[in-house]
Amino acid sequence: xxxxxxxxxxxxxxxxxxxxxxxxxxxxxxxxxxxxxxxxxxxxxxxxxxxxxxxxxxxxxxxxxxxxxxxxxxxxxxxxxxxxxxxxxxxxxxxxxxxxxxxxxxxxxxxxxxxxxxxxxxxxxxxxxxxxxxxxxxxxxxxxxxxxxxxxxxxxxx
Length: 158
Ligand code: PNS
Fold this sequence. Notes:
Elements: E1 3-8, H1 15-25, E2 30-36, H2 47-58, E3 64-69, H3 73-80, E4 84-89, H4 92-109, E5 112-117, H5 127-135, H6 146-157
Parallel strand pairs: 1-2, 2-3, 4-5
């Protein structure tokens, strides 16, 4: 079984994330989408809400499992017998941070990180920018799945 992890905060999942998850699902038998539980960072959606959204929007791929984790990603990989991490790279600005994390993760555990280039259609997209635009009434349709769009608008309006 070739298994891989796509980790992240996913607050909320965007079409950019979904593009990476979907393309990864065609290369591996099982993709574990791992949602970080980060008590230090204020999030818009709870971890369980993020998991529900991810499950709904990845259902059609057929080989995605959504889990939560806290602590080190490499410990989660060891527990789940996952040898490989897949990360999307949007631009050179992502590279320094991602390279350091990939090297540290390899050094700690031997877990490999593979980088997938983001679809240029979404290379400018991040969950934090998305929330900022939506918060001030900007149109984010087309950047997130419809289900996420409706929950996002509802949450920010409420
Ligand atoms: O979507 P994000 O917030 O960019 O995801 C970052 C994430 C979850 C992949 C990263 O913060 C992570 O792996 N955190 C777990 C803690 C960890 O393993 N830190 C050591 C990295 S060298």
